[in-house]
Amino acid sequence: MLWFAIPGAVIGLALIALAVLVVRKFPELVLIDVATIARERDASVKKGIIAGRAERLSKNWLVRAKSAVTPTAVAMRGAVRDLAARAADLEQRYRRIGMTAGSGEKVGDRQIRELMDQAREMARAGRSSEAEAKYIQVVSINPKFVKAYEELGRLYLREKQWKEAEETFRFLLKLDPKDASVLANLGELETARGEHAAALVHYQAAVTLRPANPKYLDMLLEAAITAGNRDVARETFARLKEANVENKKLGEFETRIREMTAVETK
Questions:
Q1: Quick one: what percent of the chain has pLDDT higher than 90?
Q2: Largest CA distance in the chain
Q3: Nearest to 203, CA basis, from 212, 225, 147, 218
Q4: DSSP code per residue over 22-35
Q5: Is the pTM above the cut of 0.85?
Q6: CATH code for residues 176-266
Q7: What whole-number distance in Å separates Cα of residue 204 and Cα of residue 7?
Q8: Which backbone phi and psi does 65 adopt, to 5 degrees?
Q9: What proportion of the chain, given as a percentage, has pLDDT over 70?
Q10: Residue pLDDT, tens place only, 111-124
Q11: What's the Cα-to-Cα distance from 218 to each of 38, 206, 222, rounded to whole Å?
């Protein structure tokens, strides 16, 4: 009577084999060829950013594939068809992206703008994984589109994916060490991780580049007070007051600085 179990066993083995194939090959489908970028040393960082997503997706596929193995042959057949269809769809989609990015053809600004708008809308709606995919699609098409990297990094920051956020921001800093926005982003990341001394350094660098920027002055002042650096706090407070006299937090900042001084004089 064991012959009744043979079809189910065969289908089960086929499902497992297909799942393994998808897990092994999926990162290759997602990883777009970015090695053609002029600076070879930056290619590995771009790969790391995209590969991070590939690794997370491949793990999800493996979990889904394992959970799809049921005792009934009908369920197995359905899971195999579904897995194969999704894999084929992803392969076709990412192959098109790769061909577009590698062909040397200039992709219109309209397409990039549409993808960026979609990514922002998804991020606002809390659909972080989908937003991440859109940003990665943008940088796969145009590996030099800095804004996509920065917004992707901020997405990781909001999702508390510290490692991915830091890799993205530090890559941007390699492209332009004098990008005040990226320096401030690194400061925000370090603040979120409780690394206040490191955050202070990056905020100071951002303010050096943009000395009258109220946002960066506000961040620097907050970091200086948190880090207990009274001198930097006093100096930054004066600059912030001059740059944005209507800042509603000035009174609070002044009180906190006064309290710092009182503690030190005791």
A1: 53
A2: 90
A3: 218
A4: HHHHHHHHH----T
A5: no
A6: 1.25.40.10
A7: 68
A8: -65, -40
A9: 58
A10: 999 999 999 999 99
A11: 37, 11, 6
